[in-house]
Each structure stands twice: as C-alpha cells, then as structure tokens.
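Lab notes, practical 5.
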Amino acid sequence: MLQHRVRKIKNHFIPVLSRDVLQQFIPRKTMYKNCKKPFFLIPALLLFLLSSCATPPPLQPPDEKLLLCTIEDNEMLLSRFAPVFAIEDAQERSNRIGTPSAQLGPDNQEIISVDPEEATVYGRQDQFTTEKGSYTNLIYRIHFKEVPGGFFPYHLTEGKNVGLLLIITLNSRNEPILYTSVHTCGCYLAFVPTSYTPPDVLPEDWKKERQSVYSESLPGLLDHRSDSPEQDKVVFVIRGGTHRVKDIWLADAGFLPSYKKITADLQPFTALEALPIGDQWGTSFYETSGPRKSYVKGSHKSRERLYMSWWAFDWRIGEDKKLGKNKEDGVTFYT
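Output from the prediction step:
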C-alpha cells in the first residue's frame, strides 16, 4: 500500500522473467526507493499504525471457520491449474467469494453489488513472448461484498465490491514458474517463484524460505515435488476482513485438506461487462464513461482517500478497477 506512486504496472500485467525486472517489482526491495524526502515517512508511519494488518496474528490451525473454494475440473488450462481459495472466517458474509450483480433501484438507478451467496471466479488466458521463451498467464479474478468499516478492527481499505487477482505464469511446457497476487485496487503486490523458475532470473539475495509482503509472511519459493505440476493444487489462504493473501501452499490435487468445500462457477472476464439487470442484459461492472471510466462501480475508498490521496496525488487511490489488456482498455494498474 505504501507504494501507490512508486511503481507502475501496465494494464495487461505481464511478469517478464528477467533478473532486472523481478528486482524492480520485489516489494521488500522497493519499499522506500522513491521516498527520498523525510516527510514521506510520516504518512508511511501513519499507515502502519492505522492498518489492521500491521501485526498479523499467527496462521490459524485447521478448523470449521476455514472454507475451501474450488473450481470444477475440465480440460481447459484455466481449470486444470485453477487455485484453491482457503477462506478464513467464512461464516462472515463479507469474507465469502461472491458474484457481482446488478439491480434497478428507485428511479431505475443501477445498484451494483457482490452477492456472497454464490461464488464466481472470473478467468482469462493470455500468451506473451520474451527473449527467454513463450509464456502463458492464467489470470483469476474474485470479488467480495466489502471490506467492512467500523473501528475495531480499523481497516484502512474499507469499501465495497473489492477484489483480488491471482496470476499463474506457465512456461512453454505448462509448468508454473511464477505465482502473482495483487488486489484489484493495485495494492499488496506479491511474487512467489517456484521450483520450475530458472534460478538465474531470481535476485541474488532472494530468500527461498519466507518473504515479508506488507506485513504478511509468504513463501519465498514453492517447491513442486510431484512428477507433474498438475498433481499439485496451489492453495491461497485469504485473510478474513481485509481479504489479504495470508499464506500460499501446495497440496496434492487428489487429497485436499478435509475442510468444508464449495465449488465456484468459472466465467470469462467478459462476463463482468454484461451483468443481467432487470429484463435487460449487458450492464457493466465497471464505469464506461466519465472520470471514473474503468473503475468498479460502487468502489469508493473514503479512508484511503482521506489518509493517502493528498501525498499520492491520486483522488481515486485504492479504488478497484478493470484489468485492461492495454492502456486504452483500462486505467493504469499500479501498486
């Protein structure tokens, strides 16, 4: 969150596997790179004091409050490599993966919300090529009803219709070489390489055990021990309240932890631009015109605006947005 003005990411969000690029994007190495003036430390300190995630509690043991959200298996790459979401405190409606929906309110005004009673994962598959080879990005987008307000705990990212993006980058042999997570506001970017990642592309001081990503402890590297990467399922543990990625691990696809499970519907990204409303079909989850074009409808972050907009020079800081394929297809997606 402290890096809203430090690094920009192109809207198509393609991790390029080179040492220089990875070093640019590792959060722990760039935390204060552009903060040369002392006054920038004041809002940084303020954020840590206000954020409910400043001191994360230890990882919970398995219990009835953890819900696994999976995607039905089929032959599509998006399904074969789909992550499993382990949702913390799923008894709270705001913590469940939901489905964006639209309805007509008074005076036929659109009301856009996320229905936590049904889980939908939105997927997109992109290909790209670098000097090192050809790659595939499997991009998964999920949304939640809200990050709740209130003061105990006090969530800096309070707001509605919030979301999370997970990106699995495959090499030409369909082996996962990089896991990426970032909130749809552009916050909390994290990279986790794997045992299939060429060692020469990692920073020299990269720690393979654990890494600290804006107060969360995540793996420094995921080791695919099975003969085939498809025998493993990557599990993303989603923290209750803030929907932060709390941990990531690999599990045998045929023997997932014996928690309560639900199956999410898998839909294309384009479905978010054609939500049914009344007797019609086709309203977008995103604003389609005006100064908020490409921002999620109903996504307003009053606390981030209050504490951060004045020094980040961004009135819409923290607001969730569309992941465009290029700069003409959406607002700049930065972290």
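Observations recorded by the TA: The chain has a mean pLDDT of 79. Residues 170 and 176 are 4 Å apart (CA to CA).
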